[in-house]
From TrEMBL:
<protein>
    <submittedName>
        <fullName>L-fucose dehydrogenase</fullName>
    </submittedName>
</protein>
<dbReference type="GO" id="GO:0005829">
    <property type="term" value="C:cytosol"/>
</dbReference>
<dbReference type="Pfam" id="PF00248">
    <property type="entry name" value="Aldo_ket_red"/>
</dbReference>
<dbReference type="InterPro" id="IPR036812">
    <property type="entry name" value="NAD(P)_OxRdtase_dom_sf"/>
</dbReference>
<dbReference type="InterPro" id="IPR006311">
    <property type="entry name" value="TAT_signal"/>
</dbReference>
<dbReference type="InterPro" id="IPR020471">
    <property type="entry name" value="AKR"/>
</dbReference>
<feature type="domain" description="NADP-dependent oxidoreductase">
    <location>
        <begin position="59"/>
        <end position="363"/>
    </location>
</feature>
<dbReference type="InterPro" id="IPR023210">
    <property type="entry name" value="NADP_OxRdtase_dom"/>
</dbReference>
<feature type="signal peptide">
    <location>
        <begin position="1"/>
        <end position="27"/>
    </location>
</feature>
<keyword id="KW-0732">Signal</keyword>
<dbReference type="GO" id="GO:0016491">
    <property type="term" value="F:oxidoreductase activity"/>
</dbReference>
Length: 375
């Protein structure tokens, strides 16, 4: 499988110049109306109807920074944040759950030194952190000495946001996502609807009040499944969703056929999280967070990679740009644990992918015929 590093090395002589090298062709505009500032795409407007839409279409997520699946030294995390900023990234997403508080502390270490009006920040609610008894988790090895307590009440939301402000060292958060209120949350399973009902009476109206008070700009769900987002569209008034692992080169039809039309009807936009399926489309033998890689998925990845190589592009680059193409998508989040990784991601957004590549993927039925692609 062609590595992204091999692909990008043909375009720049070193990682330090990846983000700004004139050798890169600007990426085509996504289907959503966008204007450009520097090298990364922006949305033309901060609203979709009456709902907030982040102006930056490309952001850095805080999962790898916090040491997901293997420890990340803080020096590497700070290097990734600094490289992201130098490359023009101005949207940052985190959560109390990422690294059991570590992601917010590390992001705050960097962002608290920047001018607050210059970047967009989102975090999550739904888990409060308490001292002691850290979880035994495959996702979070070597966790800090805290454990989570689920709380989707109104008071729990206020407490969670205040705790996040303290860990981040900032005075405000732009977007708040109710986190992992979903059947794929193994702590909940089929009981996720019980937690949802609590949030429907507590967290959701409280976030609407906070939006009306001007304390936040937007709220929604941050989940790895479609059903909770479809339900909340019917029962509450969200502005935006963080939909992770659901709109990628190997999994997108459910989002394309159900979630995106429902969001468009309400003027709600989607932040796509994990466009690489937690590393699977980068060649890592892992899919999603604790998912199972089937033979069919491996075969699809191999076919996608072979076509990408024939067209002289990198599969990870194609995956990032594919995720950004739909009109309902307002931003794409990538994860990085080193400076080089985020520099390569930034470079990927500037590559011009030939139209023939996308046409071949549709001809081979590797992506949906009606899936939007970069122009």
């Amino acid at each position: 499988m062609t590595t992204r590093r091999q692909f990008l090395s043909t375009l720049a002589s070193s990682a330090g110049v990846l983000a700004t090298s004139p050798a890169f062709t600007h990426a085509a505009q996504a289907a959503a109306p966008a204007v450009r500032a520097g090298t990364l795409p922006r949305n033309a407007s901060e609203t979709t109807g009456r709902h907030y839409r982040p102006r930056h279409r490309f952001g850095l997520g805080g999962v790898p920074l916090a040491g997901a699946f293997k420890p990340t030294p803080n020096a590497d995390a700070q290097g990734a944040l600094a490289a992201a900023w130098a490359g023009g990234v101005r949207y940052f997403d985190t959560s109390p759950w990422y690294g059991i508080g570590r992601s917010e502390r590390r992001m705050g270490q960097f962002l608290s030194e920047q001018k607050r009006d210059e970047y967009i920040l989102s975090t999550k609610v739904g888990r409060l952190l308490k001292a002691g008894n850290p979880p035994d988790s495959k996702v979070w090895p070597e966790p800090p000495p805290f454990h989570r307590v689920y709380d989707y009440t109104a008071d729990g939301v206020r407490r969670s946001i205040e705790d996040s402000l303290q860990r981040l060292g900032v005075e405000r958060i732009d977007m708040v996502f109710i986190h992992d209120l979903s059947p794929d949350n193994r702590d909940m399973g089929e009981r996720w609807t019980e937690y949802f009902d609590i949030a429907l009476k507590g967290a959701m109206p409280e976030l609407i009040r906070m939006r009306e008070e001007g304390l936040i700009k937007a709220w929604g769900l941050g989940v790895n499944a479609i059903e909770p987002a479809l339900r909340i569209l019917k029962e509450s008034d969200p502005d935006i969703f963080l939909s992770a692992t659901q709109y990628t080169l190997v999994r997108h039809e459910d989002s394309l056929n159900r979630l995106q039309p429902a969001c468009a009807e309400r003027g709600v936009s989607i932040v796509v999280g994990s466009p690489l399926n937690v590393g699977f489309l980068a060649g890592v033998e892992r899919i999603d967070y604790l998912g199972t890689i089937t033979d069919d998925l491996r075969n699809r990845r191999a076919r996608l990679d072979a076509i990408a190589r024939r067209h002289g592009i990198d599969l990870r680059t194609a995956a990032l740009q594919f995720a950004s193409a739909p009109q309902t998508v307002s931003a794409v989040l990538v994860g990085a644990r080193t400076a080089r990784q985020i520099q390569e991601d930034i470079a990927s957004m500037q590559v011009k992918i030939p139209a023939d590549f996308w046409a071949e993927l549709k001809k081979e039925k590797l992506i949906a015929e009606h899936a939007p692609v970069p122009a």
